[in-house]
Amino acid sequence: MILNLDTTFSPLGSNQLLFESFIFSGGEPHIKLKTNLEGVEEVTITSRVNSFNDFGMLLCAIDAVKRFGVKKINVFLPYFPGARQDRVMVPGEPLTVKVYAEVLNNLKLNSITVFDPHSEVTPALLNDCTTVTNYTFIAQVLQNIGKEVLLISPDGGALKKIYKVSEYLGGIAVVECSKKRNVTNGKLEGFKVYEDDLRGKDCLIVDDICDGGGTFMGLAEELKKKNAGDLYLAVSHGIFNKGVEKLNDYFKSVYTTDSFRDVEGVKQIKLEQILK
Fold first, then answer.
1. Which stretches of the chain score pLDDT less than 70?
2. What is the domain count for the chain?
3. Which of the listed residues 132, 165, 184 is the one where a domain comes to its end?
């Protein structure tokens, strides 16, 4: 049985448990399951975590299911919160991904599934973790584009994954790029494309997360300086905290999934399609 905490998000099917949820006036999330789970052996909970309150609702839901005596509880958390804070860069910072992971590990879940985690740190910290790669997502993006492209790695952190994507897709050529970030203030300070002339070839930038979009707009400018053709962007998790309007000025099409939220103004591929 499936409990989709976001009822508009059903990546694993619509065999939906009924529930009520709300936020108390003090800010605490609360849930009440309306489906009787007595005798049920296994439940999978899905959630799109956009805030710490969403994470709190997930924890409450897990406890509510446990109190029916359900032995196996699985969690599908496509966008894992805190995954980008997977190392401590300066003194005084937390290792945020470990904070979330330890909370979930303490609940002794049957399994946790994550879609295209930011790095190998997330699955390494989680007990009984399964990862879903971005391979099928990118394959569907390429099918939608409908023509040959170069795969663009935006930085060193994405290199290992993008070469695996290339291998899965039959050896599409990869162009390596880099950027500099000031670790004290988080600002980007430069981009570099390691090709002298792209000879008008179309390019698809592939990455796991788009937040503000500065990385991709800065990289798009550098790619155009190297004689790139049409530019496309595919990100597994579209946060888009500054909207998508400016990104659409740089890219012919922007692709994402519904792992974080539903987004207008981009081409969104539902995880339900990717997981088939």
1. 182-187, 189
2. 2
3. 132
